[in-house]
Amino acid sequence: MPKAVLVDLTKCIGCRSCMVACKQWNDLPAERQGFVNDWATPRDTTAETWTVVKYYIEDKGGRVVWRFVKRQCMHCVDPACVKACFAGALRKTPEGPVIQDPSRCIACLYCFNACPFQVPRYRTGGEGPVIMQKCRFCFDPGGIYDRVGQGQAPACVRACPGGALKFGEREALIKEAKERIAQNPGRYVNQVYGESEFGGTSWLYLSDVPFEELGFPSAARPAMLSLLTWTPLAAGLWLAAKEA
Amino acid sequence: MTNHFIDYKNSDVVMVIGANPAENHPQAMKWILRGKAERGTKLIVVDPRFTKTAAHADIYAPIRPGTDIAFLLGIINYALEHNLYFHDYVVNYTNASFLVDPNFKFEDGLFSGATTKDGQFVYDPTTWQYQKDKDGKIKRDPTLQDPNCVFQVLKRFVSRYDIKTVCRVTGTPEDVYRQVCELYCSTGRPDKAGNIVYAMGITQHTYGSQNVRAVAILQLLLGNIGIAGGGINAQRGESNVQGSTDMAMLYHLLPGYLSCPDATRHPTLKDYLEKETPKTSFWSNTPKFLISQLKAWFGAKATPENEFCYQWLPKLDGKEHSHMAIFQSMAEGKIKGFFAWGQNPAVGGPAAEPTRKAMEKLDWLVVVDLFETETAAFWRRPGADPRKIKTEVFFLPAAFSYEKEGTVSNSGRWIQYRWKAVDPPGDAKSDLWIVDRLFKAVREEYRKGGRFPEPILNMVWDYDAPGSEEPDINKVALEINGYEVDTGKPLPGFAKLTNTGSTACGCWIYAGYWYPDPDLGVVAAKRRDRTDKTGLGLYPKWSFAWPANRRIVYNRCSCDPSGRPWDPARALVYWDGSKWVTFDVPDFGAKDLATGAEIPPEKSAQNPFIMVPEGVGRLFGAQYGPRAAALKDGPLPEHYEPIESPVRNLMSKQQNNPLAKIYQGEGAARGKPEKYPYILTTHRLVEHYQSGAVTRNSPWLTELMPEMFVGISPRLAAKLGIKPGDRVVVLTARGKVYGRASVLPTLQPLKVDGKEVEVVALPWHWGYQGMAPGDSANVVTALFGDPNTFIPEYKALLCDVRKA
């Protein structure tokens, strides 16, 4: 049964414990991104910052709305990045996570172009080759960073003090999300983001503010997806021809 | 806290005023959110800034810094005017019916008794007393009609705080303020619980104690004390600051909140006990607490014949020696040596630059910390000339909280044992190790001779653990808990303490925390049982809550005088007709200690507030003998302007608290609004802890919050031509600090008496050390303090801002 995480944005307090827990568990270094006006530095995910909490602060005619939105790889049900990766470095696991074999990554940027959420990022500094790195959902079968494979919640979920993150089976979490909407009239917008968006994702969101106002891409673009699927195929053929 | 963190989930309305749990107490916010999700708890957030907590509020009420008393008295006035107070609770469990001296007056912003002593303004509190009959009993009027009864005195006093006036003072929009009054006063019913959460936004003012009094009066009027989901819940500023105050890391106390002996008032043990022991209330046991403490410290040497070694205790000289006073004395060269132990006054104290300069007068300074803090490095701070500073600085590396074992007491008074996770690195040692070696070294010196060696040479200091370099923490814990002197057996609780010398106890309120639980086989502080019979989250066998493992204090008030719970769904204790049913440890006489017989409810209904001599909650803070002195600045809270304010006091011609403590020197310079037109306030951030001594040395946390910044409103930014991220300078009469401009709609100008007032907000976590240095906000704060606690004014000052 595929795993998932339900993020209830009405419960996030913006403490960013999830960000620190992620770096701690995955031995990721700190980066210097400098001051940003709304305090939410680092602003975006990078090869060494796999999750960020983005702040949305808006003055709606004298009433201020401030929401905290955790972003990371969405671990799509049918991931475009996997289709785009002609090197075979990415794969979708039956457990849900989309994980990577770094030794096969050739830094072609195809996954970056394919991802509707612009998640994959490339490690350019330091030692070793340039490779893509992203959130692996704390799933590292046989590796030292595995949590989900050991029956544990991801590090970010474990660290969340506000109860905003819940780890479980995807089907059960979708059911629970719908129950929360039904049982709390007026509390949420009537949408479980990730249930069907872009073919469905393993990270699911509930919110009281419309998702498009919080930076979530609003609709699937099937035409573009198929194009993106075909492009790497073509590229692969081209590479194969070149090698021959 | 009267209640505890988990209990927040039981509230119908939570009003957060002067606190920001989402940022500063995330684990507390969890329980507010639990209440919102599970029972529809409404959240009111009162703050000058739209905070992360406000992001979750049902009502956000902006307030001008330093006007909490006006805000709270306005709600009190609203409750009284609209009969929304909890009548039966007020009549039975507060001093509402007590008659006050008819000569008590309040005129022109001053209480009766204003006079001068040694050229200083003081109050003579003679008229702040109750009327007594021939037998010495307090006169009462249970109908609450007598014009001199507390209820009527209070009603007249707060009648000036109508909504319009309050909003002119506080800058809160009237419609928002009215909603706050309506929603919060809806908890003045038996089946509703209202919880007030506060922190440093309430206390750090020149009238901080009166702010707290205003909170207490409101909660008593609405019947919100002693019930689940209610209470006055002060969120402490550090994980174990509750424990450190319990253990008297304050100059005016001994452990367990016993008064520190004062040579001018208590030359003998007899004097101390006579002056500090009230005839009624639980404090009438003071002799048992103090004598057991002396036995714990001086052992067999302490006997009735030698005042239990009382003369070996250090005593006060009748003067004030709080934080700011210590640094004033240091600046005057009166203090030669100083320990900064887990404290970083060069960043955390007010008027940081004079603080750093004062340390130049020291012969020696010992800093015990994890990293070389700004205090440890004060001699090479920017602008200082190390060649001219003679202070010898010793740095002792300390173990972090997860590198040692011991208890941590949280704001809810739960004393939880924490086990060691990892060994400390390098030469770092636990505080216990350091203090143990230090004491032994000092004792060694005294063995060679000294001015007054007896207390040092005779103190019980026997914590060695054979075969271990670390002292035996069990021995320390047992001494704090208390034991029978003859057998050495731990005491189950403070009820067993005596004044004869047969018991020893280092801190009476902790008695029982180190007593083995018969079912779980561990001492109480190590319990981790998750049983919660009531569903109210009392968890009676999870750790130990002082006093007596009581989770909600004053819980007699959760029932009516006949012992029926006001709200059966939130019952903590109740009388079933023949006996008390207790889910929480009763905070009253439920059983006769000698016979075990049940004590009927009528008796405890007389004194449900067992810690005050009147036995009832104090709407009027009367002058009433030992441990019940009125606050120095009045029996009722009155609004005064902060020492630095952009406006005239609208409530009276008395501009400031006449007793506000203003210290000496450049740190106490006062700025005028003509030169410093904006209100300055300080705050914290979730990413950093206190002075940043640890967090600014943690790469992952400095990554999240790398630089000092200055919060200003979009309107002020536009007016001054400041863009987000610009380098700006904040100036006050004390100095200036630089930072990046953070321009967000979370700050908005307030309309105060028709005039727009801007608030500038500074986080105070930065300093010149660590991997993310920056200017310290406290360079621009001031040496102004509260006359009762001497806490500094950190929250309402004046400044100017410019593009740097």
Top-tier CATH class of the largest domain in chain B: Alpha Beta
- Structural class of the secondary structure composition of chain A? alpha+beta
* Number of structural units classed as domains of chain A: 2
What is the overall number of helices of chain B? Answer: 21
So what's the CATH class of the largest domain in chain A? Alpha Beta
- Can you tell me the CATH topology of the largest domain in chain B? Dimethylsulfoxide Reductase, domain 2
User: Can you write the helix and strand succession of chain A as a string?
Assistant: EHEEHEEHEEHEHEH
Rg result of chain B: 26 Å
Widest beta sheet: strand line-up of chain A: 8-1-9
The percent range for helix content of chain B is: 10-25%
**How would you classify the helix and strand content of chain B by structural class?**
alpha/beta
Biggest beta-sheet profile of chain B: 6 strands, mixed
Helix content of chain A: 10-25%
CATH architecture name of the largest domain in chain A: 2-Layer Sandwich
Compute the gyration radius of chain A: what is it?
18 Å
The CATH architecture assignment of the largest domain in chain B turns out to be: 3-Layer(aba) Sandwich
Distance N terminus to C terminus of chain B? 43 Å
Structure description:
The complex is a heterodimer of chains A (244) and B (804). Chain A is α+β, with helices and mostly antiparallel strands and 244 residues long. Chain A folds into 2 domains: 3-77 and 141-214, 2-Layer Sandwich (Alpha-Beta Plaits); 80-139 and 220-243, Alpha-Beta Plaits, CATH 3.30.70. Chain A is built from 6 helices and 9 strands; from the N terminus they run βαββαββαββαβαβα. Chain A has a 3-stranded mixed β-sheet. Chain A has a two-stranded antiparallel sheet with strand order 2-3. With 804 residues, chain B is an alpha/beta fold. Chain B has 5 domains: 5-234, Dimethylsulfoxide Reductase, domain 2; 241-316 and 457-508, no CATH class; 323-404 and 423-447, Rossmann fold; 559-607, no CATH class; 661-803, Barwin-like endoglucanases, CATH 2.40.40.20. In chain B, strands 24-26-25-31-23-29 form a 6-stranded mixed β-sheet. In chain B, strands 3-2-1-8-9 form a 5-stranded parallel β-sheet, with helices on both faces. In chain B, strands 12-13-14 form a 3-stranded parallel β-sheet, with no helix packed on it. In chain B, α3 runs antiparallel to α6. The longest helix of chain B is centred in the middle third of the chain and has 17 residues, at 431-447.
